[in-house]
Amino acid sequence: MAGTDVITVVVVDDHPAVTAGVRAWCAAASLDVVASGTDARVAWLPPGDGADVVVLDLQLGVAGPAYGDLKRLVDAGRQVVVYTMRDDRETALTCLDIGAFTYLTKAEGEHHLVAAIQAAANHTPYTPPALSGALGTDTRSNRPRLAPREIDVLLQWFHCESKEMVAQKLNLSTRTVNSYLDRVRVKYASVGREAPTKAALVARAIQDGLVQVDEL
User: Fold this and answer.
1) How far is the C-alpha of 49 from the C-alpha of 44, rounded, in Å?
2) How many structural domains compose the chain?
3) How far apart are CA 126 and CA 213, in angstroms?
4) pLDDT digit string (tens) for 130-189?
5) Whether residue 202 is found in the same domain as residue 165
6) Are residues 170 and 128 in the same domain?
7) 161 and 99 part of one domain
8) Which of 13, 63, 123, 201 registers the highest number of CB atoms within 10 A of its CB?
9) In this predicted model, what pLDDT tens digit does every residue of 60-82 receive, in sequence order?
10) Are 156 and 126 in contact, with CB atoms under 8 Å apart?
């Protein structure tokens, strides 16, 4: 996202009142909701297919969680903010493992949703309160073995605006920084926890105790 570009949003939610509320919040924040609909097809058809961010209700209709729709969107490189009534830890962590940018409950409201959309469009991490709680209590054991230098590069990248800055701080080449980050991503993918974006890597690092939310 260029700093002067208007962020575009597509909303997938089967509750008209929720969609209307999201539209109003986005308009007040100068975000452009270009399309909305009751199923994920609206995110694949013009103009929704070109939106910067997909706001996805995880519970569409009477079926179970829309993990399949989330995975297809993530696999296509879309930035997905899950926005749902479900507030259980396992659902939140599953969405992150699939590759959602972040996870919000609908109880968290306007401020957090707008901030999450802006962060997703600009590829900067955002961890709302419910997700922070889920990450803080994650005790799953499928954690990759990261080398100390890989952890150093990863944590430094969380605090820098670019990989070039990381390279300068650690006295490495940018190519070497990229190599370390690529290896970290491969290791996470190998245990079934893909992290294709910086935001996803932040979430993984929080889950695995490498960094605390208040340190970011």
Assistant:
1) 4
2) 2
3) 10
4) 777 776 666 656 778 788 888 899 999 998 889 999 999 999 999 889 888 988 888 888
5) yes
6) no
7) no
8) 13
9) 876 778 899 998 998 888 999 99
10) no
